[in-house]
Sequence to fold (270 residues):
Amino acid sequence: MSELLKGKIAVVTGAAGAIGYGICQVLLENGATIVATDLPGEKLDAFAEDLDKLAQGQSMGLPMDVTNVDSVATALDETLSQYGQLDILVHNAGLAHVSKIIDMDIEKFQFLEKVNVEGTLIVLKETGRRMIEKDAGGDIVIMSTKNVPSPSAGFGAYSATKAACHQLGRIASLEFAPHDIRVNMIAPDAVFSEGKYKSGLWDLVGEDRMRARGMNEEELHQYYRERNLLKAAVTGRHVANAVLFFVSRQSPTTGATIPVDGGLPDATPR
Fold:
C-alpha cells in the first residue's frame, strides 16, 4: 500500500457504482480515508461494507443527495466533525437519459439538469466554502465525459447538462485558485463495470444503445473497445488513476481535463 495520500480525507459523491468503486479503491490503496456518499439505502450500506473489507476502519458511508443543499451540507459537516479536515472532493454523481431532441420529455431533461448541473453547483459551493474557511487548500475533481467535446445523437440531455457541469468546474478553478484549491476534470468514455459493481449510467442507457446498434451486451462492449485508438476497455480503475494524478499534486495543475477514453480523435479539444 502506498502512502501517497496518507492523512488525506476524501469525499466521493455518487460513489456506489463502477467508477465510484474504482475511485474509492485506488484512493484507499494510496492511504486516503474515504467518505463514500450516495443516496441513502441498502445500496450505499452494502457499498460501505465492501469498502471496509478493503481497508478496515479507513472509510465510512454517508447519505448525500447532491440536489439538496441541506443534504450536501450535512454530509460535509459530518465529515469535518468526524475527521477535522476535508482535503479531496471527487464529484462523481450524475445521470443520463437517451432521447432525440424532437422527442425530448422536458421533465426528464429538467431532472438531469437538476442532478448534473444544480447538483454540481451545490457540491462546488458547499465544498468550496468549507475548504476556504479551513484555509488548508484542497483538491476537487469533477467527473466530466467525452460527450462534452464530442456529443452523441440521442444523448442531448446528458451531453448538454454535463457540459454545464464541466464549465462550472472550470469557473471554480478560477475562483478557488487564490485559496490553493485546485479544480480539475476527468473525461471518461464508457465504463461498464468495476469488480462486482456495474455502471448506473449504463443500466439506464445500455438497452437503448444495444437496440440502436443491433447488438447484445458483449458486442456493445466490443464496439466501445474497437472505436478507440488503443482498443482499450476503459475501467473504473483507469478513471481512478487519473483522479489520483490530480489529487496527489504531481504537477501544478488546475482547470485541466484528463481524457480516459483510449484515444478518441473526435473528442480531441479543438
Remarks:
- The chain has one domain: 9-199+234-264.
- The helical segments are 18-29, 42-54, 69-83, 106-134, 156-176, 200-213, 217-226, 236-247.
- The CA atoms of residues 174 and 262 lie 29 Å apart.
- The chain is about 45% helix and 15% strand.
